[in-house]
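FORM 7B - TANDEM STRUCTURE REPORT

SECTION 1: FIRST PROTEIN
SEQUENCE AND TOKENS:
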Amino acid sequence: MMQRPKIAIVDSNVLSMIGLKQILENVMPIMDIKTFSSVEELEQTNSDDYFHYFVAQSMLLQQRQFFIAHQHKTIVLTQNSDPSNQPTGFHCISTNVTEEQLVRSILMLEQYAHAHGKNLPAMPKAITTSTLSAREIEVLGLIVQGYINKEIADRLNIGITTVITHRKNIMEKLGMKSVSGLTIYAVMHGYVDINDI
């Protein structure tokens, strides 16, 4: 059996690590995500086995040599959304944004770095099997593009109660409770382009 690829999150802020781990598990369910509060803790494992390191900017500054040596694998989590104030030479994701924007940034990074699953193993069958009807997929696409129930009803020429029923069924079938979760599902299944969100 093929081993799942691993991602490391290196951050001394436990709450940040837990939140990012949960988002990454949704965005990249094939990955085995491990958390480390220091580079020393990471190095006690076989650090070269990790596909990517998601690292807090403060940790990058403390352990710059380690991350420069692994620059192609390192994704810096920064509070600053201005690219001119982010570390040069590294992929950066601003964490000082809404959950939807953070998910979008991670999805964009995943989509551009590993377009069509390049260099990644196949998704588990349970994740790739669509359980949604054609109409539910249409509704899902409009939900993740930010349309409200009335706008979806108008666009699809159906009643608002029908939209609400579809929305409820989609969330139940997928076991998701948030629009962020639906966004991840829709993008990963190709139901909506990341640039349309």
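SECTION 2: SECOND PROTEIN
SEQUENCE AND TOKENS:
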Amino acid sequence: MTSVNANSAPLLRTGLSDQIREFIVEGITSGRWEPGERIVERRIATELGVSQGPVREALRQLETLRLIETVPNRGARVREFTEEDLGEIFPVRAGLEQTAAELAIPRMAGRVESLERHSDRLAEASGTGDTVAQIRHGIEFHREIVKASGNRLLVSVWESLRIEIWTTLSIRLHNTQLHEKSAEHARITEAFRRQDAGAARMLHDHVMHYAP
């Protein structure tokens, strides 16, 4: 997908609403739009050099994902995320990742370099206090395991959860100490290296630590 930002040229017409959706998702994740804040369709269209139609479609998609809500006579705004929201999303994610890990363990035999790379970079980011990099490498670590499951439906469902946003929201709400999560990633990597079937449960419990 073509990356978009405020300084980008007008977006490509292929998959336009998808690109706009990702632009808005990035804005929510980065804190550009805070919970409860309006997302003005016209402003986004002007900023990205597009018509309002694909912006409206992107907002509809995000409403389906429960990331925004439409208020009568007020337009779209970022949802006020609650503990209940987090309490629903993380058990689903944990179950998916446990299943993914069970499938991935034999498929990753002798091939844990990708996990090591993200785990190491996560540790480095933790040492420098780079929260954005910690979140990015942490999510990519999990994505590698899900992809290694070889189950396309599982991957699709996992991606649809918008892990980046929910992880960021959990960290904001609970002031999660990410350096502790870095150590957990290293232990999970070692379990995969040993082909330890217990790695699946370790991953499940690790994800649940983000839940309220």
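SECTION 3: OBSERVATIONS ON SECOND PROTEIN
The chain has ten helices and three strands.
The first strand starts at residue 38 and ends at 39.

SECTION 4: SIGNATURE
Preparer initials: ____
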